[in-house]
Amino acid sequence: MTSPLTPLYLHLAAEQKSAEVTDWSARISWVVGLIVFIAFVYWLMRQGWKWRGSLQSDLPELASTPDGFADDGKLLTLTGRYHASTTAGQWLDRIVAHGLGTRSRVELTLTERGLDVVRPGAADFFVPAAALRGARLDKGIAGKVLPEGGLLIITWAHGDKLIDSGFRSDRSAEHPAWVEAIEQLTSTTEGTAR
Question: pTM here?
Fold first, then answer.
């Protein structure tokens, strides 16, 4: 006994075709082209980073931690992240010379002599108390934007340039104490200099 659907079933079975064969050479060409494009963009970014470093080559070498600094009475310590350093007041003008553009973990120690910045995997540096100009809470610095007050920005002088360095503590509730301590230290240093 034949059903009325039989001719339709036979008709559909006759219409089915196998899937088209994939053109592997075209796919491989696209993948290789994409890889070359990504490598080219990465190379351009690297060249831009090197060019920025050469423009900032007039920046003096960073100071290293003075002998006996560990024996000083610590005012504050902080562990967290170092995000970037920029020209003071220009939060997008990243400074890359001497490794200041490298993000890293950080350990900060503030004493009467200055600020010791220890960065595992990047160049450490020291900011003498006389070079500290102030501190504030902010929300952004080159390459990092956080909620209001999420970054501790420390302003310091190096050579003839004012620099803003951005830090974020593992415990952001510590930030206001750092701002207050640095402001007190800078006002004491300015009073001594007069």
Answer: 0.73
